[in-house]
Amino acid sequence: MTASSLPKSSKVKPKKPVDQLTNVQRRMLAVLSDGEAHTKAELHACLWDDKSQLSAIGFHLTALRKFLKTYGHTVVCELAHRRSIRYRWVRLVSEAATNAICFGS
Predict the structure, then answer these.
(1) Which end of the chain has fewer beta carbons closer than 10 Å to its terminal beta carbon, N or C?
(2) Are 91 and 71 in contact (CB under 8 A)?
(3) Among 41, 22, 25, 44, which Cα is nearest to 33's?
(4) How far is residue 25's CA from residue 27's CA, in Å, rounded to a whole number?
(5) What is the CATH number of the domain that holds 82?
(6) pLDDT tens column, 20-70
């Protein structure tokens, strides 16, 4: 049986990459997609409720980093004003590009 002989309702639609993420992780990705640095409180707002522990953010950030790494991106931590940690979605630079930029090779 070929795919063209299957009834239309049984054909599998190709999934978008973000379909691999949970709703919380998609909301975090939407917040981070503006390229700005965001506080833990801003990311905490993406969780299901206000009673969720802040440690849950780390779990979701780890999953996002793993997902984004396959596309050459990650979420980095930045120290702001020597006190607060902020998170930013960035594109990774390959080692070859880093060497070209730093050493002109």
Answers:
(1) N
(2) no
(3) 25
(4) 5
(5) 3.90.1150.220
(6) 888 999 999 999 999 899 998 899 888 877 667 777 888 999 999 999 988
